[in-house]
Write a structure and sequence with these properties.
The protein is of the alpha/beta class and about 350 residues long. Helices cover about 40% and strands about 15% of the residues.
């Protein structure tokens, strides 16, 4: 069954009620708190239930709403698995003690160490199951690719008046900026962010799809987006979307240095999970060939399991790229300092 998605974290925290989790002694259940809300995930979950006989009760909200609900419920929370869509949020859930360690030979053999949470010897706190790149799109008619092929160039004076982004405080940008801070250090990162503010064509607003459209329309010339937003438009049958795609170029930044920033969707077992066996079974299922294909083909994300096969033409068209190799948890650890920098430089 699916619990209706709340509109905001505050309403979730204020209106916590007991989930209808009554089950017969023989029935196996899994209580999934998920920040993913893609239609293609329905088949992902249905196939797990069909294969295992485990019924999934789902609570849907955004990352912040999920975390607020878990904190409000405390030790009485019925959550078994927490599924979030951003590295910074996973790190926050980990530091808030919302996960429990998982020791699994299946997960450790299939999920790269850089895409897992902290492990103090008892197992990782969470595991990444899909990735997407934070890329740069540019207007092919007015910008040379060489002027926008690194993150650093977003703050270069040569691009004054050309840049647009969503809010600097959005988790996708906080994760990117946290990674950049790890590469450049604090003083250089703050100077870079100040340069980005100076280069803005307009105040930050909208989502990633809005940035792509703004580049195509000429409202700005250069923007950041997650790859799956662009891939959706590449696969769209809407002529307007196809026209936008024709006008923009895409570059995987920093291929000659540290590589393109990647973010993840990941999950872990809730600290007070009442159905731990089913929870671990579900995590291991998410690392299976079948589930990895759903992540890739359903929501245009790259699988994390080496050799996992996809049939997504947009991902094929985007091609291979060099990704950064720092642990994704680092981006979360840096987010407080990054937010302070954003406040100082006036990045809204």
């Amino acid at each position: 069954m699916k619990i209706p998605r709340a509109l905001a974290a505050a309403s979730l925290a204020a209106c916590v009620t007991a989930l209808p989790l009554a089950a017969s002694a023989q029935e196996k259940v899994l209580n999934l708190y998920s920040a993913r809300h893609y239609q293609t995930d329905e088949a992902l979950y249905a196939n797990f239930s069909k294969a295992t006989g485990v019924r999934i009760n789902r609570v849907d909200a955004d990352d912040a709403g999920i975390l607020a609900r878990l904190k409000s419920e405390g030790t009485a929370s019925p959550a078994d698995v927490i599924l979030l869509v951003d590295a910074a949020r996973l790190w926050r859930a980990e530091t808030d003690g919302l996960f429990q360690p998982v020791k699994s030979a299946v997960l450790e053999s299939r999920i790269p160490a850089t895409l897992r949470g902290a492990d103090a010897g008892q197992g990782s706190q969470w595991f990444g199951f899909s990735t997407r790149g934070r890329v740069i799109v540019y207007n092919k008619a007015s910008v040379a690719k060489a002027d926008a092929d690194t993150y650093e160039e977003l703050g270069d004076p040569k691009n004054k008046g050309k840049v647009c982004t969503r809010s600097g405080s959005h988790p996708y940008n906080l994760s990117l900026f946290g990674a950049v801070m790890q590469h450049l250090g604090e003083p250089a990162t703050e100077a870079w962010l100040k340069g980005m503010v100076a280069n803005m064509a307009r105040a930050p607003k909208g989502g990633d799809t809005d940035q792509i459209k703004a580049v195509a329309s000429g409202e700005c010339q250069i923007a950041l987006t997650n790859t799956y937003y662009l891939a959706r438009m590449m696969r769209s049958s809407n002529p307007d979307d196809r026209a936008v795609v024709e006008k923009v170029g895409v570059v995987f930044p920093n291929q000659s240095s540290w590589g393109t920033h990647v973010n993840i969707a990941g999950a872990g077992i809730a600290k007070n999970s009442p159905n731990r066996t089913a929870a671990q079974q579900f995590l291991e299922y998410l690392a299976s060939e079948q589930a990895q294909a759903y992540f890739a083909d359903g929501n245009n994300e790259w699988p994390v399991v080496a050799g996992a096969k996809t049939t997504n033409p947009a991902l094929d068209a985007l091609g291979p790229f060099k990704a950064e190799t720092i642990p994704v948890s680092v981006t979360g650890m840096n987010q407080t300092k990054v937010q302070q920098m954003l406040d100082r430089v006036g990045y809204k």
